[in-house]
Design goal:
The complex is a heterotrimer of chains A (about 100), B (about 120) and C (about 325).
Chain A (H helix, E strand, L loop, with lengths): L1 H21 L3 H25 L5 H23 L2 H5 L12
Chain B lengths: L1 H28 L3 H26 L3 H31 L9 H13 L2
Chain C lengths: L1 H9 L3 H21 L3 H26 L11 H19 L10 H4 L2 H11 L5 H9 L1 H22 L8 H14 L1 H24 L7 H19 L1 H7 L2 H24 L14 H47 L3
Classes of the chains: A mainly alpha (about 100), B mainly alpha (about 120), C mainly alpha (about 325).
Chain lengths: ~100, ~120, ~325
């Protein structure tokens, strides 16, 4: 069952990566990164149990905290002056040429 | 006793991974940002919670158990907060939820009235 | 991972690039976890996914988020890169398989680290004993490099701060308070916990994954979170710039002086056995002190870098505000 859960989380991470690359708006990407981070926390916790090394949980805690801090940082700086006047919503440049 | 632990933890893990997986699909398939956020929120709280509870049941050590509780509390605290801030920032910066505009509404009315 | 790297290269929107770099750091950390390199994963999590993302964000906020269109076609550079990469890959063909028992890396010093470090150092985490005792001189070099980076940022970007009036600060804080109420309360709950966890990582480095580098980065990340949510000037009141510069210097000094003390008491440079009557206790003391030095330096240099970057940005914004007010 642990393996099944690990596999499911791994696939979810792949889906989140796809959304992070494709995602049309900036916020989609932030959402994908956030979800990727939480899934990494889960993956590490599960891997710790699969490999019989429960001290991996320390790293899981660090990931949770760092993920929170970086998402807050992204949002804080996306609120600043420059971003508001730049075309935040639809970026024509980022379409693959 | 052993079999109860195995079955219950397996149940929690299965439900959790199903929720995570469905949330991932939702993140990919839903039409606009806010609905996607709804899908991601499910995985952040309920999916992660279920998986962590499943792990708690099979953990043998008290230290491991308490660390898992810690991770669970952190995810429960952090996930909704990030979702809230994200939605607020998106709304402030003018990202509107995707709704049917007037043209589409008329179309929908016409189709519904033409074939009753 | 390769997909993400290609996407990073293709994108012109630097903000999205930073986001993807965060994902990239998380993936590589997951790799390290799978390969059982816990300490490396720890560092990658704290540095690659956390601090560097934040610092790059601050830089982008200063410079703008679009990459300039590149006109010239870099074919010759591409050729050189391809040749070098091909040679490197050709070189790896001769290397033994990952995990092969008779690989040269497992023959040289690794058996001694693995078999004897418990008896010689008395620290359960082998990585810590290698980092802080066998290779103490290398680590000292790394700390000095970080310290030099801090000095460089200070000399290049240091801003002469104007005295801000109290009213301005309070007005800024009020507007912030309206905007980020929920997140401020949650952060208030979390920040003490993060500091505590950083200390745990610092002191637990002997027994589990962790150590001075990671603890310093986590500490700095918590401080940066505080500075982002409660305003830079408030954070500057809590942590004084000169004070933090002093701490950075003291960290390096602590590290170096441990070496010098061991030199004075008759051992080699960074030979901790002579620090106490019992060699193992001496090793413990030396590693603890050195980890403290590393932690202090890393944390304060990170905070210095952030403060100076963000301080410049704030100065920029103030100038813009003044310019906007003048025409009206």
């Amino acid at each position: 069952m642990l393996f099944a859960a690990t596999l499911a989380i791994f696939i979810t991470m792949l889906l989140a990566i796809i959304r992070g690359i494709v995602g049309p708006t900036l916020y989609d990407r932030i959402l994908a990164v956030n979800m990727f981070g939480t899934k990494t926390v889960l993956l590490i916790a599960l891997l710790g149990f699969v490999m019989g090394r429960p001290e991996f949980l320390d790293i899981a805690i660090v990931y949770a905290l760092i993920n929170f801090i970086s998402v807050i940082g992204v949002l804080r700086y996306s609120d600043t002056h420059q971003f508001k006047h730049s075309p935040t919503l639809e970026d024509p440049v980022e379409k693959e040429d | 006793m052993d079999i109860i632990i195995t079955i219950s933890s397996g149940f929690f893990l299965l439900v959790g991974s199903f929720l995570c997986f469905s949330g991932g699909i939702g993140l990919l398939r839903f039409p606009d940002f806010y609905t996607r956020m709804h899908a991601a929120g499910v995985t952040d709280t309920l999916g992660a919670g279920m998986i962590l509870i499943g792990l708690m049941i099979i953990s043998t050590d008290l230290l491991v158990f308490s660390k898992l509780v810690l991770v669970l509390l952190l995810t429960l605290l952090i996930g909704p907060t990030t979702s809230h801030v994200l939605a607020k920032a998106a709304y402030h910066n003018g990202l509107m939820p995707k709704t049917l505009n007037n043209h589409e509404k008329n179309n929908a009315k016409e189709t519904s009235s033409s074939n009753p | 991972m390769v997909i993400v790297a290609f996407a990073i290269i293709r994108m012109k929107d630097l903000f999205a690039v930073v986001m993807l770099l965060g994902i990239y750091g998380l993936i590589s950390a997951s790799f390290f976890i799978v390969m059982d390199a816990v300490d490396v994963a720890f560092t990658e999590a704290a540095v690659g996914a956390g601090i560097s993302t934040l610092l790059m964000l601050v830089v982008i906020a200063m410079t703008g988020r679009k990459e300039k269109a590149n006109r010239h076609k870099p074919f010759s550079a591409l050729f050189i890169v391809l040749v070098t990469g091909g040679l490197l890959i050709y070189g790896t063909l001769d290397m033994p398989h990952i995990g092969a028992v008779d690989a040269p890396i497992h023959k040289h010093v690794a058996p001694r680290y693995i078999n004897d470090s418990m008896a010689e150092i008395g620290v359960p985490n082998i990585v810590t004993s290698v980092l802080a005792s066998y290779r103490a001189f290398d680590t000292f070099g790394e700390v000095v490099v970080i310290f030099t980076a801090g000095i460089g940022v200070l000399t290049l970007l240091s801003v002469a701060r104007r005295k801000e009036s109290e009213e301005e600060i309070s007005s800024i804080n009020d507007s912030m308070h309206e905007q980020h109420l929920v997140i401020r309360i949650v952060a208030k709950m979390l920040i003490p916990f993060i500091f505590l966890f950083a200390l745990y990582v610092q002191f637990h480095g002997d027994f589990g994954p962790g150590g001075g580098f990671q603890a310093g980065v986590i500490f700095a990340a918590a401080t940066i979170l505080y500075a982002m949510l409660f305003g830079l000037s408030t954070a500057r009141k809590v942590i004084n710039q000169t004070f933090i510069q002093l701490i950075a210097a003291i960290g390096v000094l602590l590290y170096g002086s441990v070496g010098i003390v061991s030199l004075m008491s008759g051992g080699n440079f960074f030979d901790y056995n002579v620090l106490a009557s019992d060699p193992i206790a001496g090793q413990h003391l030396g590693i603890l002190l050195i980890e403290w030095g590393v932690g202090c330096t890393v944390a304060s240099v990170m905070i210095i870098i952030f403060f100076n970057f963000a301080g410049r940005q704030e100065l920029h914004q103030q100038k813009e505000r003044v310019q906007n007010q003048e025409p009206s």
